[in-house]
């Protein structure tokens, strides 16, 4: 038994790891080796009884069919008549007829693999956003009123919530805030239209005198003659006459959009009413469509974005009112006509940060220039620049704070992208979208750093679609 064990150990030591696997290597007495299919060992009556057929001897045991510690190919058990299968060494062997094919991934640098993975994922996300924007463009008559209603709901929802806390029914509180909002907007529009109609004759009478003053100032200050200015004015009039058809078609197109404007207005009011009455239930229904494990995080991200949107709308209205009041007072002292319409234009322009205020102020300066002369126009420009500086360095940091902290570069780029994608409306909603997306994305990326938010009770949500 010891002799057979020593022979097996020596055979295992001298076993070639790259040898062919179709057999078992035996070491003969003269030191040479032979490959056979299997080895029949004579039965040893004096040895211990063979183990049961279903029992596996431990490795290194002196039992004839026990495996070696280094796991070489084992010979068949005595009397079994079949050879034991050894480990397949042909894959990767130097003696194999042909080497296994090498994976292409091993030849690609790790940085290139990471860049490719990010690239196709980025392309997929950009393509998805493009398709969403194209789909929204086809149904812009529905999407735009919903977004406007959402912005107005951020302004009016705190008032409706306060009325409900006082015991008012949800429908009555929503209807009351809707009527209040409509009353304020209608009053402002009526005031602007009446002031414009009343001051139009005065503006028309002052334009001729103002243009004469501007012409005299230009000819005295710059090397330009009266004839050149007259030629430029005549060329402008000729261009207007030549493009009369284009202007007429544009007016007809504008008239054709009046129907869409009225439809959008009614849809905005309808959507705003239900946002004020059932906004939370509608959101819980949407959250209920998400997986249960992510509902709490989505609800908390939406809550933070909603608070950010409320802060943004309130701060923007405060800044717009400040700009309109102080610029309007300055124009009033300068004797500029149409002060109220110009102040209303400044108020609306303040909803587009940086760019809107600049454009509205430019219109005010031009009206002052043609109405009361270039000197007062320069004073109006100084007043507008001073108000813009107070807005940018005092009001916005004080009112917005850290809740809506967006870098000016992100604001300018976002407004430019919104203007290209959605026109004036895209520029209006660019900043709130960036602010809310920043808050929600920051929270979702760090959601595991704090305690888990409470699970929203989606069972309280009202179903938007029911079956009978």
What topology does this entry show?
Layout lengths: L1 H12 L10 E4 L5 E4 L73 H29 L1 H26 L4 H52 L4 H17 L1 H45 L3 H43 L4 H11 L5 H18 L1 H27 L7 H38 L23
Helix pairs in contact: 3-4, 3-6, 3-7, 4-6, 4-8, 4-9, 6-7, 7-8, 7-9, 7-10, 7-11, 8-9, 9-10
Give a short overview.
This protein is mainly α and 468 residues long. It contains 11 helices and 2 strands, in the order αββαααααααααα.
Secondary-structure element order, N to C: HEEHHHHHHHHHH
Average the pLDDT over all residues and give the rounded result. Answer: 74
Compute the CA-based radius of gyration.
Answer: 42 Å
Which of globular, elongated, flat, extended, rod-shaped describes the shape? elongated
The major beta sheet can be summarized as: 2 strands, antiparallel
- Strand elements, count: 2
Structural class: mainly alpha
Number of domains: 2
What is the spatial order of strands in the main beta sheet?
1-2
The fraction of residues assigned to DSSP E strands is under 5%
Query: What count of helical segments does DSSP give?
Result: 11
Distance between the termini: 86 Å
Q: Specify the helix fraction band.
A: 55-70%
Low-confidence stretches: 71-100
